[in-house]
């Protein structure tokens, strides 16, 4: 069994050290190495800081770029995100985003009747969030059903972009 240091006195009180020791013992009982556990927590904390929606979208876009889409299509995808999404939630942690955050961002588009733009943004947001799931950043896509919060175009209705 390896020795674990919790810090030096007086930075860590005896009471705090005992609490940390008890937590470490509990992890060991569960078959978890306390030092590895602490390192994983630190890594996760760092990921939460650096994994903004815009950063993950940028990584997703690099993959999307390799799919053989035309330059005009790619530019349209990125411009729609820069115009409608990034100014509002681009700097938000991917871990903290909820469906209501995406819906709130698109409310002004609904008010102006831009249902086709909403439809496309919902598709792009879902692709980005599923990318985050697939690379192991998040467990589930919170945006999976956001399109259901908006009306859809009726047959024969001209889209407003």
UniProtKB/TrEMBL annotation:
InterPro entries per record: CB, DNA_brk_join_enz, Integrase_DNA-bd_sf, Integrase_DNA_bind_dom, Integrase_recombinase_N, Phage_int_M, Phage_Integrase
Alphabetically ordered keywords of this record: DNA integration, DNA-binding
Example GO molecular function: DNA binding
GO BP, one annotated term: DNA integration
UniProt xrefs under PROSITE patterns: CB
Taxonomy, superkingdom: Bacteria
Residue intervals of the Core-binding (CB) domain: 51-133
Family: Belongs to the 'phage' integrase family.
Name by which UniProt lists this protein: DUF4102 domain-containing protein
């Amino acid at each position: 069994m390896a020795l674990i240091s919790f810090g030096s006195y007086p930075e860590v009180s005896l009471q705090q050290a005992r609490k940390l020791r008890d937590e470490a013992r509990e992890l060991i009982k569960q078959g978890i190495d306390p030092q590895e556990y602490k390192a994983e927590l630190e890594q996760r904390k760092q990921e939460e800081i650096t994994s903004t929606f815009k950063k993950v979208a940028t990584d997703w876009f690099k993959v999307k770029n390799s799919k053989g889409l035309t330059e005009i299509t790619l530019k349209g995808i990125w411009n729609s995100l820069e115009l409608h999404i990034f100014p509002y939630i681009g700097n938000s942690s991917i871990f903290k985003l909820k469906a209501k955050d995406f819906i709130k961002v698109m409310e002004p588009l609904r008010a102006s009747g831009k249902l086709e733009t909403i439809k496309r943004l919902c598709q792009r947001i879902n692709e980005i969030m599923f990318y985050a799931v697939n690379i192991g950043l998040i467990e589930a896509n919170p945006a999976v059903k956001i399109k259901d919060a908006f009306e859809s175009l009726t047959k024969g209705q001209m889209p407003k972009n």
